[in-house]
Amino acid sequence: MKGLFFGILSLWLIISKAALAGDIEAGKARYAQNCGNCHGPGGMGLASYPKIKGKEVPYLVDRLKTYRAGTKVGPNSDLMIMMAQPLSDVEIANLAAYLNAQK
Amino acid sequence: MIKKSKLLSAAVVATAALMASPSHADTMNTPNISAMSIMNGLENPWDMAFTNGGDMFVTEKCKGLSVKTSSGSVHALAGMKGSKGYASTFNDLFCSGQAGMMGVALDPNFNKNRRIYVASTSDKYHGSGCKTNFEKCDGNIIMRMEVSKDMKSVSNRVDIVKDIQYKPFESNHPFGGPGAHNGNRLRFGPEGYLWATTGDRHRGVVPQSPKLLGGNVLRIDTDGKAHPGNKPPRGFDKRMYTYGHRNVQGIDFRPSDGRAFTAEHGPWQNDEITALVNGGNGGWDPRPNVGGRGDCPDKYCGYMPNQKEGMLPAKRAQFMPMSDTRFSDLMPPAWNNNGLSQGTGSAAFLKGSNWGYWEGRMAVGIMGIGFGGTPSGMRIDVVDIAKDGQSIKSVIHMPTGLTKRFRGLRLGPDGALYAAVDEGEIYKITATAK
Questions:
Q1: Chain B residue with Cα closest to A42
Q2: Which of A93, B48, B414, B422 could form a disulfide with A46 if both were Cys (CB 3.0 to 4.6 A apart)?
């Protein structure tokens, strides 16, 4: 029983870590669906849309979750809220991992 | 067996004949298109202007004006506040959001007078205005300068238009940051006058205002004075050729008759190509409490009835039309991008036989804005506009092989189409007809 508990705990920790770390390739694919139209290739920033490449993962995750919750941060918030609302926690982690890896 | 062989032979002959005959595309004289990057590493390149000898002037929205000479050397000429390495720096020129240094045009007599015209955001003429979003704010200007013969500097700056409206603060709208909707494309018309586009700057009263410069196409001389033939309604600023626009960033003149056509951003519906009429009304009126609308966020209805999520573009258009038919002086669009807004950023008519049967058609750069279920659609369209300017005969996508945010298009003296993209590059798009 104890072994099963630790087994489940270990599995949960592995899954959580994977989710937290994010999958760069999956993030790249998700980024290509919506984000690149405005933020440009690799999050370079285009026109009035800010550069988001190379940002820290906690910052990116926090911003996306804030937008997903419908909270405004900055002048283009309505657009970002619209874009972030369908994102899952895993997708957010993947996007953050991808953007963090762009230097 | 013999019959089978004969049939096979006949099929081979027929196939060979088909292969040998010119394809439909060949008989139509469709040009072959190739695209090549000629500048990269730029920051938001916005517009280009060419000398007859092939020198290319380029604006970068937050940096300034440069020139790439026909020999390939690049000289930084006129910088904005905070930029480095420019021969001259003007501290009143700044960028914010969509605003900054944008359109550029060369005087038709450039070879003699060395004059260049540049549209930019400036804080020099704010005066007592610009304290809120709901008052006059003179923040976009048109400058005239002179380029030295060695192409390494500019001098004698004169601000020929000082009172184009600017949005100073954030508002409660999508794309709601300061600096929204400036227009600012500059082109010389066939009669030698300067045409300048302006935007509504997210202020409801601006496009239909008789006095505020915003949401207009201006036709002025090289000192900034009105063309004597402009016919805006009585009491309107005489510099206006047309009014009632949202944000015109594409303008060019049809080679066959010299008529001005604009390409204009829609809000979340209806990008438009419009044949201009002297004194005409684009039909954009985002004021609250008119046209059946009530109050709107920050007195601007441009993104209503629903600012926060996608909805059917046609329903948006019904509530907040780009071209409102209640205006008797409305200039109806020739094309509305199938009811979508994807960001028509610029326009250039294709001139020269190298463009084959596309010669005389309008190339339109589309930046790609994919909100609310609208496909992004980054591309250059080639539009065949009807002679009367009231409709189009066809629209096709130019096969450039590029998926970029096409910000500025300009035909070069070599007959190639040049495209500035937000990704920081300028492409030369070459057409070869048979």
A1: B423
A2: B422
Residues of chain B above pLDDT 90, percent: 88
Q: Which option is the CATH number for A2-101: 3.40.50.720, 2.40.30.20, 1.10.760.10, 2.40.10.270? A: 1.10.760.10
What distance, in Å, lies between the first and last C-alpha atoms of chain A?
47
Q: Is A78 on the interface with B (CB under 8 A)?
A: yes
> Chain-centre distance of CA B421, in angstroms?
12
Residue B19 domain flag: no
Predicted ipTM? 0.76
Domain boundaries along the sequence of chain A: 2-101
Residues 6 or more apart whose Cβ sits within 8 Å of residue A49: A38, A39, A40, A76
Q: What percent of chain B has pLDDT over 70?
A: 94
Q: What's residue B204's pLDDT?
A: 98
| pLDDT in the model for residue B409 | 98
Helices A89-101 and A2-21: angle between axes, nearest 10 degrees: 50
Identity of the residue in A37, A41, A76 whose CB atom sits nearest the CB atom of B175: A76
Q: Which helix (H) or strand (E) holds B394?
A: strand B392-397
Which strands, in side-by-side order, build the sheet including B248-253? B248-253, B260-264, B272-275
The pLDDT score that the predictor gives to residue A10 is: 56
Residue B147 has pLDDT above 50, yes or no: yes
Domain count across chain B: 1
User: Is residue B20 one of the residues assigned to a domain?
Assistant: no
B85: contact with A, CB 8 A cutoff:
no
As to burial, measured by CB atoms within 10 angstroms (0-12 exposed, 13-18 middle, 19+ buried), residue B172 is: middle
* Tens-place pLDDT, residues A40-63: 999 999 888 899 999 999 999 999
Confidence at residue A21, expressed as pLDDT on a 0 to 100 scale: 82
**Is residue B424, in this structure, part of any structural domain at all?**
yes
**Cβ-Cβ contacts under 8 Å, A79 against chain B:** 174-175, 371
Kindly determine whether residue A46 and residue B307, on different chains, have CB atoms separated by under 8 Å.
no
Q: Name the residue range of residue B174's domain.
A: 33-432
Please state the rounded mean pLDDT for residues B241-250: 98
Q: Which of A40, A81, A82 sits opposite B423 (nearest CB)?
A: A40
Kindly indicate the confidence band of residue B369, based on its pLDDT and cuts at 50, 70 and 90.
Answer: confident
- Closest-CA distance, A32 to chain B, in angstroms, reads 11
Write the CATH number for B413. Answer: 2.120.10.30
| E-only strand ranges, B114-234 | 115-121, 138-147, 154-165, 186-188, 194-197, 217-220
- Mean pLDDT within B76-81: 98
pLDDT at B226 over 60: yes
Chain B residues close to A74, C-beta within 8 Å? 177
The answer to whether the Cβ–Cβ distance between A78 and B173 falls below 8 Å is yes
Report the gap between the CA of A62 and the closest CA in chain B (Å): 21
Assigned domain for B1 exists = no
CA-based nearest residue in chain B for residue A74: B177
Asked if B372 lies within 8 A of A82 by C-beta distance, the reply is yes
Instruction: Please tell me the predicted confidence (pLDDT) of residue B13.
Output: 46
